[in-house]
Amino acid sequence: MKKILFSVFAVAAVMTACSKSDVVDAPNIDTPITFEAYSGKVPVTKAASIDGEAELASFNVYAYDHSTEAQYSEVYSLINGEAVVYDETTGWSTDAILFWPANMTKMNFIAYNTSANTTSTNLTYSAGKLAFNIDNDVVNQEDILVAQTTVAQPKSGDAEVSLKFDHILSRVYFTVVSDRPMFISSVELHGDFDTQLVYDFTATTNALTAGDNSTKATFTKGENTVNGYDLGLGSTGFTYANSENSKVVGTDQNIVGSASDEYFFMIAPSTDATAIKIAYNFMDEGQNPVSYTATVDLADFTFETGKSYQFKLVNTSSKIKFSVTEDSFEWGTGSTSDLVFVIE
Fold first, then answer.
1. Is 183 within 8 Å of 280 (Cβ atoms)?
2. Which residues are CB-contacts of 336 (< 8 A; sequence separation ≥ 6)?
């Protein structure tokens, strides 16, 4: 699982919070806790372009008394959902000024990224558990990142707290490369995917589970309801065209939904995927297009937590096959294996 590092710089003091405009005048207060990026870069979200990296704009942080054992109750909460916001000039900052409790030997820090789609994602945290929804519409799906670490009270000077952010969903996207123009009318990922998940920070294994109100993702195909997701190509579809367009024959192109530039599915990790179906036709000049549907059996395929999967539709010499690459959320090098699917 890809880990992203953040830092919290903390110095021993009395835990308190005050507005930035307040004057701190307490004899036991020393240097406040501040936040900086430890690895030099911040996590990449699903909105990142294939050529670059998008910054995580903010995250929420909680801290609990961990002096004797792990605590997650609000009774032991010392930082309660403080928003940490990134600015290119000033770095990470909080509205409140936070200090380390003088009598606290250890603190347990929990953090997760804030949501851009508040209504659809509905991130809700309570007592060590983070619940959230995965929208049926790919446009509203979000990358969810979490972090947790336990830190001992600093003895002297600055103490660095490293928050390792993990991607907890599976990311799926589709590309096409062809030696002739193609029109792709639909991209569908079939299977039983949960739509509400709970991440349990208190768990040592199987931290991500289905929520009590989870249903299975569905989309409408004609008059029927199908389990899974579709890319939302709409009537305009996706044209893998010639040099007169931006999508050039012979070059890998991400299959992008017509409603927006979104092309990532952010899904619940699952062993219950059933198939990928892509409907397309060739756009040879002077010929009537013939429609095809390419189907890949995913019965034995597992989408794992924190991994990204690129499914590529390749057309060469009138043969079509799929390959799948497990790649990095940060666009690292992945490993490729061919799925058994060829059209003669």
1. yes
2. 323, 324, 325
Distances (CA, A) of 259 to 7, 195, 233, 264: 37, 21, 7, 13
In angstroms, the CA 248 to CA 241 distance is: 6
State the total domains in the chain.
Answer: 2
Nearest Cα to Cα of residue 180 among 320, 34, 51 = 320
pLDDT digits (tens), the chain, 344 positions: 544 444 444 433 333 344 333 323 333 345 456 655 333 344 444 443 333 334 567 888 998 888 877 778 877 778 888 888 877 787 777 888 777 777 778 888 899 988 777 777 889 999 999 999 999 988 888 888 888 888 777 665 555 566 777 889 998 988 888 877 888 888 999 999 999 999 999 998 899 999 999 999 999 888 889 999 998 887 788 888 754 444 556 677 788 775 555 678 899 999 999 999 998 888 766 667 778 888 888 888 899 988 888 888 888 766 777 778 777 665 444 444 444 444 33
CB atoms within 10 A of CB 69: 8
Task: Specify whether 83 is located in the same domain as 113.
Answer: yes
Between strands 308-316 and 170-178, the pairing is parallel
Q: Are residues 64 and 154 in the same domain?
A: yes
Q: How many CA atoms lie within 13 A of 315 on its CB side?
A: 22
Domain region containing 58 = 3-167
Same domain, yes or no, for 124 and 189? no
Question: Six-digit token pair at 143?
Answer: 């990358």
Residue 316's DSSP bridge partners are 319
Find out whether 69 and 45 touch, Cβ atoms under 8 Å. no
Compute the distance between CA of residue 193 and CA of residue 162 in angstroms, rounded to an integer.
33
Residue identified by tokens 């065209």 is: 241
Contact assessment for residue 32 and residue 8, using Cβ atoms and an 8 Å cutoff: no
Task: Based on the fold, state whether residues 238 and 106 are members of the same structural domain.
Answer: no
User: Do 153 and 184 belong to one domain?
Assistant: no
- Can you tell me whether residue 276 is helix, strand or coil? strand
